[in-house]
Design a protein that fits this description.
The protein is α/β, with parallel strands linked by helices. 16% of the residues lie in helices and 18% in strands. Keywords: Cytoplasm, Leucine-rich repeat, Repeat.
Protein backbone atom coordinates (compact mmCIF):
# COMPACT_ATOMS: atom_id res chain seq x y z
CA UNK A 1 0.00 0.00 0.00
CA UNK A 2 2.99 2.30 0.55
CA UNK A 3 3.83 1.87 -3.13
CA UNK A 4 0.40 3.24 -4.16
CA UNK A 5 0.69 6.15 -1.75
CA UNK A 6 4.16 7.02 -3.09
CA UNK A 7 2.92 6.67 -6.66
CA UNK A 8 0.05 9.08 -6.03
CA UNK A 9 2.35 11.56 -4.31
CA UNK A 10 4.85 11.57 -7.19
CA UNK A 11 2.32 11.80 -10.03
CA UNK A 12 2.52 15.17 -11.79
CA UNK A 13 0.11 14.54 -14.70
CA UNK A 14 -3.14 12.63 -14.64
CA UNK A 15 -5.77 11.89 -17.29
CA UNK A 16 -9.20 10.47 -16.39
CA UNK A 17 -11.52 9.39 -19.21
CA UNK A 18 -15.00 8.09 -18.52
CA UNK A 19 -16.56 5.84 -21.14
CA UNK A 20 -20.31 5.78 -20.32
CA UNK A 21 -20.96 2.89 -22.70
CA UNK A 22 -18.47 0.71 -20.87
CA UNK A 23 -19.22 1.71 -17.29
CA UNK A 24 -20.82 4.42 -15.21
CA UNK A 25 -19.01 6.36 -12.53
CA UNK A 26 -21.14 5.61 -9.51
CA UNK A 27 -19.12 7.32 -6.81
CA UNK A 28 -16.70 10.14 -6.20
CA UNK A 29 -13.52 10.66 -8.18
CA UNK A 30 -11.02 11.65 -5.49
CA UNK A 31 -7.85 13.58 -6.33
CA UNK A 32 -6.80 14.42 -2.77
CA UNK A 33 -3.92 11.90 -2.75
CA UNK A 34 -2.40 13.38 -5.91
CA UNK A 35 -0.91 16.44 -4.24
CA UNK A 36 1.81 17.16 -6.81
CA UNK A 37 -0.33 17.18 -9.94
CA UNK A 38 0.51 20.06 -12.25
CA UNK A 39 -1.54 18.81 -15.21
CA UNK A 40 -5.03 17.30 -15.02
CA UNK A 41 -7.19 16.16 -17.93
CA UNK A 42 -10.79 15.01 -17.51
CA UNK A 43 -13.07 13.73 -20.26
CA UNK A 44 -16.76 12.97 -19.70
CA UNK A 45 -16.27 13.09 -15.93
CA UNK A 46 -19.14 14.86 -14.10
CA UNK A 47 -17.81 17.86 -12.18
CA UNK A 48 -20.27 17.08 -9.37
CA UNK A 49 -18.33 13.86 -8.61
CA UNK A 50 -14.89 15.50 -8.26
CA UNK A 51 -13.47 15.38 -4.75
CA UNK A 52 -10.14 16.73 -3.57
CA UNK A 53 -9.80 19.51 -6.16
CA UNK A 54 -9.39 22.10 -3.42
CA UNK A 55 -6.25 20.24 -2.29
CA UNK A 56 -4.64 20.10 -5.73
CA UNK A 57 -5.72 23.42 -7.25
CA UNK A 58 -2.74 25.29 -5.83
CA UNK A 59 -0.32 23.15 -7.92
CA UNK A 60 -2.29 22.89 -11.15
CA UNK A 61 -0.71 24.65 -14.11
CA UNK A 62 -2.74 23.00 -16.87
CA UNK A 63 -6.37 21.93 -16.68
CA UNK A 64 -8.19 20.23 -19.55
CA UNK A 65 -11.87 19.31 -19.21
CA UNK A 66 -13.96 18.20 -22.16
CA UNK A 67 -17.45 16.82 -22.69
CA UNK A 68 -18.42 17.30 -19.05
CA UNK A 69 -21.18 19.97 -19.23
CA UNK A 70 -20.90 22.31 -16.24
CA UNK A 71 -20.96 25.96 -15.15
CA UNK A 72 -17.60 27.60 -14.53
CA UNK A 73 -18.41 28.52 -10.93
CA UNK A 74 -19.04 24.83 -10.12
CA UNK A 75 -15.43 24.18 -11.00
CA UNK A 76 -13.51 27.26 -9.88
CA UNK A 77 -15.51 28.42 -6.86
CA UNK A 78 -16.93 25.18 -5.46
CA UNK A 79 -14.17 22.82 -6.68
CA UNK A 80 -16.74 20.26 -7.80
CA UNK A 81 -18.11 18.14 -4.97
CA UNK A 82 -15.77 19.77 -2.44
CA UNK A 83 -18.21 22.70 -2.16
CA UNK A 84 -15.30 24.77 -0.87
CA UNK A 85 -15.09 28.49 -0.36
CA UNK A 86 -13.74 30.56 -3.21
CA UNK A 87 -9.95 30.61 -3.37
CA UNK A 88 -7.54 31.45 -6.16
CA UNK A 89 -6.01 28.88 -8.45
CA UNK A 90 -2.60 30.58 -8.16
CA UNK A 91 -0.60 28.62 -10.75
CA UNK A 92 -3.19 27.78 -13.41
CA UNK A 93 -1.75 29.12 -16.67
CA UNK A 94 -3.43 26.95 -19.29
CA UNK A 95 -7.14 26.15 -19.34
CA UNK A 96 -8.78 24.06 -22.06
CA UNK A 97 -12.56 23.60 -21.82
CA UNK A 98 -13.81 22.46 -25.25
CA UNK A 99 -17.16 20.71 -25.81
CA UNK A 100 -18.70 21.46 -22.39
CA UNK A 101 -21.84 23.36 -23.36
CA UNK A 102 -20.60 26.51 -21.60
CA UNK A 103 -23.00 29.31 -22.48
CA UNK A 104 -21.56 32.18 -20.42
CA UNK A 105 -18.47 33.33 -18.61
CA UNK A 106 -18.96 34.22 -14.97
CA UNK A 107 -17.08 36.00 -12.21
CA UNK A 108 -15.35 32.78 -11.08
CA UNK A 109 -12.67 33.51 -13.70
CA UNK A 110 -11.35 36.14 -11.29
CA UNK A 111 -9.91 33.21 -9.31
CA UNK A 112 -7.42 32.52 -12.14
CA UNK A 113 -4.91 35.36 -11.67
CA UNK A 114 -2.06 33.98 -13.82
CA UNK A 115 -4.12 32.46 -16.64
CA UNK A 116 -2.34 32.85 -19.98
CA UNK A 117 -4.24 30.51 -22.33
CA UNK A 118 -7.96 29.73 -22.29
CA UNK A 119 -9.59 27.54 -24.95
CA UNK A 120 -13.39 27.66 -24.94
CA UNK A 121 -13.89 26.26 -28.42
CA UNK A 122 -16.97 24.24 -29.32
CA UNK A 123 -19.14 25.64 -26.52
CA UNK A 124 -22.35 27.64 -26.59
CA UNK A 125 -20.79 31.08 -26.05
CA UNK A 126 -22.20 33.86 -28.20
CA UNK A 127 -20.37 36.87 -26.74
CA UNK A 128 -17.76 37.92 -24.22
CA UNK A 129 -18.76 40.03 -21.21
CA UNK A 130 -17.61 43.66 -21.46
CA UNK A 131 -14.94 43.25 -18.78
CA UNK A 132 -13.18 40.59 -20.90
CA UNK A 133 -13.06 42.48 -24.16
CA UNK A 134 -10.30 44.82 -23.01
CA UNK A 135 -8.07 42.12 -21.53
CA UNK A 136 -8.60 39.15 -23.84
CA UNK A 137 -7.17 38.69 -27.29
CA UNK A 138 -8.96 35.80 -29.02
CA UNK A 139 -6.86 33.59 -31.26
CA UNK A 140 -7.88 31.10 -33.88
Amino acid sequence: INFLYDFAQKTIALKVVHHPRLSLISGPVDFSSFRNITSLELKRVPISLLHGLQRVRHNLQTLIISRSSFHLNELFESCGADSSQSHAWPNLKRLFLPFNGISSLDSSLRLLPVLEVMDLSHNALTELPDEFEASVSPTE
